[in-house]
Amino acid sequence: MRWRVEDIDFSGIDVQRATASEDLMLLLCAASFVESGSDLYSHTLVDFFDGDEELCAWLRNDWEAEELQHGRSLKAYVGVVWPDFDWNASFDGFFHEYSKTCSREQLEKTRARELVARCVIETGTSSLYSAIGQCSKEPVLVKLASCIHADEVHHYKVFYQYFKKYNQTERLGRYDVLRTLLRRSLEIRNEDEEIAMRHVMAARYPERAGDSEISARQIGRVSEMVMRNLPVDMSVKMMIKPLGLPAGVQRGVLSAASWAARPLSRFLFSR
Ligand SMILES: [Fe+2]
Ligand SMILES: [Fe+2]
Predict the structure, then answer these.
(1) How far apart are the CA of 117 and the centre of ligand 2, in A?
(2) What is the structure's pLDDT at 251?
(3) Which of 27, 51, 208, 248 has the most crowded CB, counting CB atoms within 10 A?
């Protein structure tokens, strides 16, 4: 492991600064749930890649351990800032619902395609923690987000290497890869986070039960905060890498994405 939860000084958290952004705390708590459920995905993936001892060993010994550590460290952070929040009870409710979504049927049909999907997911998580680090003013969280971000980028790199290995035999064309990239980006568009957020909000604001409008507005604010702080260049570069585009085309895509990011987020959140 590149870092350990013990390396983080949770006693040094500036609670006043942390509590100043309720939206960010909701997001962290939701992320702590998803990360803490990673062992479910790890088992499904190990089963899917059965026979590839090297990849299965990495999934079991490195990937799962690191994702669970993300969950533990975020849980510890939430525990200091929200001491009255019953994390375990709320997580149990989340896990009950979430576990139904982690079946083998959710995976792609072939190994190379699934590895493209893994690249999409790790792009999403590394971008998320980069955005969290950007919008937080609380030093312990900035450090923690940076540690987790580095892990997620590493996960991306490992999955990308295995994608290249499997694609030597599967030989997916750019169109196939693009279809998988787009489908996975749209389909799983934070379904996990959405389930987690619902459970966090139900526990945090029991008095609001049934008022879906106010919850939807708050979720919209959280998404807007993330979008405003996304590292657009990094995210797009990671996302399109499996396409293996020529350097000139890649530069064109990157500048178009940087140009479109701001008006796009304004459009998405102005309604
Ligand atoms: Fe993670
Ligand atoms: Fe990851």
Answers:
(1) 12
(2) 85
(3) 27
Distance 67 CA to ligand 1 centre (A): 4
Both tokens of 269, joined, read 């959140």
Q: Which residues surround ligand 2, an ion (CB under 5 A)?
A: 152, 155
Q: How many domains does the chain have?
A: 1
What are 174-195's pLDDT values in tens digits? 999 998 988 888 765 567 888 9
Q: Chain centroid to CA 241: how far?
A: 18
3-class DSSP assignment, residue 62: helix
CA of 226 to the centre of ligand 2 (A): 18
In CATH, what number is assigned to the domain containing residue 124?
A: 1.10.620.20
DSSP alpha helix (H) spans, the chain: 15-20, 22-36, 38-48, 53-58, 64-81, 87-98, 111-135, 139-170, 174-187, 191-204, 212-229, 232-240, 247-269
Residue corresponding to tokens 């870092």 = 3
User: Residue 209: its pLDDT value, please?
Assistant: 77
Note down the domain range covering 206. 5-269
